[in-house]
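Structure (tokenized):
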């Protein structure tokens, strides 16, 4: 599972172009959380099971 926090919703398309590049086959579940007060431009949280 991948959760993306971004300070600007305008990052959405660019973020998912990169996401699709790295997870082209069987991509994990994902969510995009726009957070205007986020202290960084972007943060990505991932949970994986071996």
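Design, position by position:
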């Amino acid at each position: 599972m991948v959760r993306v926090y971004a300070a600007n919703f305008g990052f959405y398309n660019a973020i998912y172009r990169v996401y699709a590049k790295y997870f082209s086959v069987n991509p994990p579940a994902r969510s995009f959380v726009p957070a205007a007060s986020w202290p960084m431009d972007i943060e990505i949280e991932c949970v994986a099971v071996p």
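Reviewer-requested clarification: The first strand starts at residue 2 and ends at 6. The chain has one domain: 2-46.
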